[in-house]
Automatic annotation (TrEMBL):
Protein's name according to its UniProt entry: Steroid 5-alpha reductase C-terminal domain-containing protein
InterPro entries attached to this UniProt entry: UstE-like
Keywords per UniProt: Membrane, Transmembrane, Transmembrane helix
Record lineage: Eukaryota, Viridiplantae, Streptophyta, Embryophyta, Tracheophyta
GO cellular component entries: membrane
Organism listed in the record: Crotalaria pallida (Smooth rattlebox)
Entries under Gene3D superfamilies matching the protein: 1.20.120.1630
Membrane-crossing residue ranges in chain numbering: 7-27, 58-77, 84-102, 159-185, 192-213, 256-287
Pfam families: DUF1295
Keyword Transmembrane helix: yes
Length: 331
């Protein structure tokens, strides 16, 4: 049964982006004719549509996202009673967007910067995709995000329509907003500068930190699962490796990745694209609170985690501090 479900969800995941792919390929194959329509001929609906797609690349990206992700994914979620599919696509949509921006007829860019950003986006995506499937034990759609499950209980019979906005429309705001620097990179043609090197270092630092943080978290959970199976007490808190210096190094790494992309856009004169990364940072701050509140509700680890909170920095790695009430031995 589980194998059948896994195969079915894998097929669904590979088929769902086809509408966007087919539409965009049709646009690339037909926009030339729509731009050369004879003045005496009345433009057809298709030629008008291709002309609009040509002149509005960012609006087209949003339209494809709305119909293909928001609507189609939501319908699938209603049929399956699970909104799992948006999670793996978090790792894929930025890759689709960067190639879309690079291949749009109006694209203009520095070749080296484009290739660097595309490569970095692929590296980020591969890391995040690997972490997702490793966490899900290499299964497609075995479960949905725990936050969606909690919201479904919270909204009850209204969840079927609330989910459209809470799960999908919100993702459009995040993913399109966060990917704005990818659009800027492919709409401004300026030679590379020292700021591109800074952006590369920040992006790579984010990817590396997130990889090691997620790997340490995965190993910690795996060890605890083995201890449970042996009937032994589990370790309540992960406080070694990067987690010794920060309570959420994985979130730190993810933020550095997106802020690195902002530096690319800022160096091209479009610093306003920081809005997407800022919203993401605020969202992760809220998610951090949700995660930590959830951990404090677990009696077996509440005491240890409170001590961990008092001695360890939230995001920015820093040295341990002494818990309140404990005097410094060197004083």
């Amino acid at each position: 049964m589980a194998i059948t479900r896994n195969l079915k969800n894998a097929i669904i995941a590979f088929l769902v982006p086809l509408p966007s792919f087919l539409f965009y390929l049709s646009f690339l194959n037909n926009y030339h004719s729509s731009l050369t329509t004879h003045p005496n001929n009345s433009p057809s609906f298709c030629s008008t549509l291709w002309t609009w797609c040509y002149h509005h690349p960012l609006l087209l990206a949003n339209a494809l996202f709305f119909f293909n992700v928001n609507v189609l994914f939501w319908v699938i979620g209603q049929i399956q009673s699970s909104h799992w599919i948006i999670d793996p696509y978090w790792t894929v949509i930025p890759v689709m967007l960067v190639h879309y921006y690079a291949t749009h007829p109006l694209a203009k860019y520095d070749w080296w910067r484009s290739k660097i950003v595309i490569l970095l986006t692929w590296v980020w995506s591969v890391r995040l995709t690997h972490n997702y499937f490793r966490r899900e034990r290499w299964q497609w759609g075995a479960r949905e995000d725990w936050r969606f499950s909690e919201m479904s209980h919270q909204y009850g019979k209204h969840w079927w329509w609330v989910s459209f906005f809470a799960v999908y429309v919100s993702q459009q705001v995040f993913l399109i907003g966060l990917s704005l620097p990818l659009y800027v990179v492919h709409s401004v043609n300026k030679p590379l500068s020292i700021w591109d090197l800074v952006a590369i270092i920040v992006c790579l630092s984010g990817i590396v930190i997130a990889y090691f943080a997620d790997t340490q978290l995965h190993e910690f959970k795996s060890r605890n699962n083995k201890l449970k199976q042996l009937g032994k007490p589990v370790v309540p808190v992960l406080d070694h490796g990067l987690w010794y210096y920060s309570r959420r190094p994985n979130y730190l790494g993810e933020q550095l990745w997106w802020w690195g992309l902002v530096i690319f856009a800022w160096s091209l004169g479009h610093g306003w694209t920081f809005v997407g990364a800022m919203v993401n940072t605020l969202c992760l701050a809220y998610v951090t609170k949700l995660v930590e509140d959830r951990m404090l509700k677990e009696e077996s680890r509440a005491h240890a985690f409170r001590l961990y909170q008092k001695t360890t920095s939230v995001w920015i790695p820093w040295f341990k501090s002494s818990p309140p009430g404990v005097k410094n031995k060197n004083a």
